[in-house]
Specification:
Number of domains: 2
Number of helices: 11
Largest sheet: 5 strands, mixed
Helix content: 25-40%
Distance between the termini: 48 Å
Radius of gyration: 23 Å
Amino acid sequence: MKQKIPESLVHEKHDDYKELNAVYQEIVQRAGGLSSLRTELPKLLRGCIDGVIQTPKTGRRSYEELEKTEKTYIGTCVEIELRAYLKLPKGKLDTVIAGRDVDIKHTMGSNWMIPTEAVNNICILVAADEARAQCYLGLFLANPEYLTAGQNKDSKKSLSAFGFRHIHWLFRDEPYPKNFWRTLLPETVEEIFSGASGNDRVVSLFRAVQGTPISRDVVNAVARQKDFTRRIRADSGNGTRDRLAEEGILLLGGTQTAHKQLATRFGLKLGSPSDYISFQVTTNEEREAARAAGFNV
C-alpha cells in the first residue's frame, strides 16, 4: 500500500458520509466492536495469504513466489472469509449491508481495481502490505469522478489520487501478523531448510530461533510430514525435544503446565496454547529447574 495516504475528506458534511456511515456502523456492530474488528481482520488476512502459499505442501515461503492466479485467489478468499466472519448475505454484488449492494475489493498492492458493476456502489476496501505487515480497511463510494480515466483490459479502473481522499477508513496502518520467514535472515532460513529430514529441520528451527513463540503452522511448514507433532515429542529419545536437550536447549509447549511454569520463570512469553518456544539453559539454577520439570539437560 502507498506509504503516504492522504487524510480523508469524509466527515458528517461530506456527500457520501450518510451512506458510508450506515455501512460502517453495521460492519462494526456485526464484528462486535471496532476493537474486535481490528483484532480479527489481521488474523483473517494472514490465514488467507498463508493458506495460498501452503508452505508445508509446496515449500514456498512468500507471497512473491505465488502464481498470478493464486495471487488473484487471495482476494476471493478474503471476500469469502470476511463475509462469513461478519455473517453477511450474498447480494447482486458481493454482499448487502445496510440495504445497499456492496462490493468487496482486496489488494496486496498500492491500489484497488474497481469493476464496472461496482461503479456508483459502495466498496469495502481491504489491503494487506506484506513488506511492512500492515493492513487497511475502508469504505468507498465508487463515483466515476473518484476513479482514474484509464482502465485495464477488463475495463476496471483504479482509485485516483483524488479518490483516495474519499475513503472512509475504519482503520489504516494496522499491524498484522508478519510472514514468519520475513523475520529471519535469509541465511538462517536456508540453514533451517537445509536439513535432510523433518527432524533435522525442526531441530535447526528451534536452535536458530530462541525466545520467540513459534506456531504449529511454522513447525508443520518446516517438518513437511503428516505427523509433524511427533518431531516435537521425545519420540523414543530421537525427537526434537531430546536432541535439543542434549545441547542444553529447552523446548517448551504452551499446553503443559510444567512448561508454562518454566516459561514464566525464565521470562518467556508464549503466545497461544499451541505455540512452542526454545530457551538455552546457561546457569546451574536454570538447569536444576529444567530437570525438576523432566528435562534431561
